[in-house]
Structure formats: C-alpha cells, structure tokens
Amino acid sequence: MTVDLSEADTTVSRGTEPQPRQLIVTLFGLYARGERNWLSVASVVRMMDHIGVDGPSVRSSISRLKRRNVLLSARHDGVAGYSLSQSVLDVVNEGDSRIFGRRRATLDDNFLVLVFSVPESERDKRHALRVALTKLGFGTVAPGVWIAPAHTEREAREALERRGLSGYVEMFDGRHIAFGDLRSKIRQWWDLDELSALYSDFITTHRPVLRRAREGQLSDQAAFTEYVPMLTTWRRLPYLDPGLPIALLPHGWNGVLAEDLFADLNEALGGPAREHALKLIHQ
C-alpha cells in the first residue's frame, strides 16, 4: 500500500492549531530518522506532553496513523514503538529540500506544464491527480492543464510515479511568449490572497518567538515547545507556494518575509529543541 504523507497531514487552516497527528508526524520526521527510524511509544507521549497534548489524545492519533499505514508497529529490545512506513519516509526525505532548502524561480526560468486526461470510468484518478497537483503547489490554467515553476519537475515526476498516476499525464517544459499579462495570469492560476493570508498568520504568530529566542528567554524545553508546532505549521506552506518568481508576485510579497523568519527560527530553535527531544527520547 502506497501512502502519501498528506493523508496524515491535513493542511493547517487559518486560525487553527496543528492537530496531534500532524505534530506526531513532525516529531518522527525530525527525530526518528536519527534513531533508526523508530521512536518508543513512551518517548512520543513524553514529547507530546511537553507540547501540551495529553496521553489519550496521543494514543488515539497514533492509532489513526497506524490504520492509515503512516506508522508501523515495531519493537526494539522488547520496547513497543513505531516507525514511519517506507512510503511516508520517502516523502519526508524528499520534502527536506522544499522545506529547508527553498528554491525560488526567476523570470529567466521556464514553467513546467502538465496536461492530463483521465477516462470518465476512472474519475477517482482524476480527483487523485487534482489533489496531488494542488499539494505540490501547481496552479490551474484550465481543466486538465496545470503549471508550476520548472524546478519542480523532478519532485512532480517522482510524486506522480509514486502514486501510480504518471500514465495519465504529459509534462512539458514551456515559456510564456504571448497574449495577456503574465503577472495577472499568475493571480488567476494561484490563490495568492489566501497564500498571503497564511504567510501573514505565520509571521504574526511566530515573530515574537524569534524575539524571545534572540533575547535568551527560551530554555531548551521552551525552544522544543515552540519549534515543533512552528515547523508543523510551516511545512505545508512551501508546498502551497511552489517558489514563483518575485517579479510576478504582488509588490511587497510577504512570503519572502515569512521565509526569512522561518530560516531564522529554524536556526535559533532547531538545535536546542533537538537537545531537549533527545533527552526525552533516551530518558
């Protein structure tokens, strides 16, 4: 059974806190890979308790993730725990570059144009394609015609192959050469207002955390408590925004400020958070 991380990771909506199952996936992505892709049940409960999620909620969320084949039961030295399934681990590994090594296109770069056609008898595949492309940050030009910066090509190819959808798709390397203002078209193809609002929420929520960190007000435990929910919220945004050229985005695009803030938060909180997490894992 092939599983997409998105099945365990509903996009964080405006004004809502990350769900326990999303936080658990973040914990496994951050800390299980350095522990042979395994965390004990007890260590997950301890870490989630420090984030403010009680044990029953954690166990319920783990059960849901297990049913979806996101987490697999595994015992190490007689201790009960869980590992990320291989398909989800692959997605997490691939996601590192988009989340931590963000690339933004320029006006000199081409676009990746994707055209798909799905028989009426396989409407479920059509829906799966639309969901997959949306989660990869593609914009919609017309029914069955989607577009993204060309640098997303490898990621899109691998994602569609992993989902068994590549047989319905044609991919082209293209450039906008005529008719219509491309800047205006970008607004039609992507919901920039919603994306800007999500960036604004991220900045408003997490900029005070960076200030406190820089003033030395955060212990390792406090850094951990702030870092995991922050990363859980952030890790969906680079997928909704595929890295469009700044010149094609609204003046003063706040995605740049949000990207810089995330980079600073990751640098300030990531190390202390890991130190605290490892203490809880090996307690």
Task: Set down the secondary structure blueprint.
Elements: H1 20-32, E1 39-40, H2 41-51, H3 55-67, E2 71-76, E3 79-84, H4 86-100, E4 111-116, H5 123-135, E5 139-142, E6 145-149, H6 153-162, E7 169-174, H7 182-189, H8 192-214, H9 220-234, H10 237-240, H11 254-281
Antiparallel strand pairs: 1-3, 2-3, 4-6, 4-7, 5-6
Helix pairs in contact: 1-9, 8-9, 8-11, 9-11
Quick overview of this protein structure:
The chain has 283 residues and is α+β, with helices and mostly antiparallel strands. Helices cover 54% and strands 12% of the residues.
Features:
single chain, 283 residues, alpha+beta, 4-stranded antiparallel β-sheet, 3-stranded antiparallel β-sheet, 11 helices, 7 strands, 12% strand, disordered N terminus
Task: Provide a descriptive summary of the structure in words.
With 283 residues, the chain is an alpha+beta fold. The protein is built from 11 helices and 7 strands. A 4-stranded antiparallel sheet has the order 5-6-4-7, with helices on both faces. Strand 5 and strand 6 form a beta hairpin. Helix 1 packs across helix 9 (220-234), helix 8 (192-214) runs antiparallel to helix 9 and helix 9 (220-234) packs across helix 11 (254-281). The longest helix has 28 residues, at 254-281.
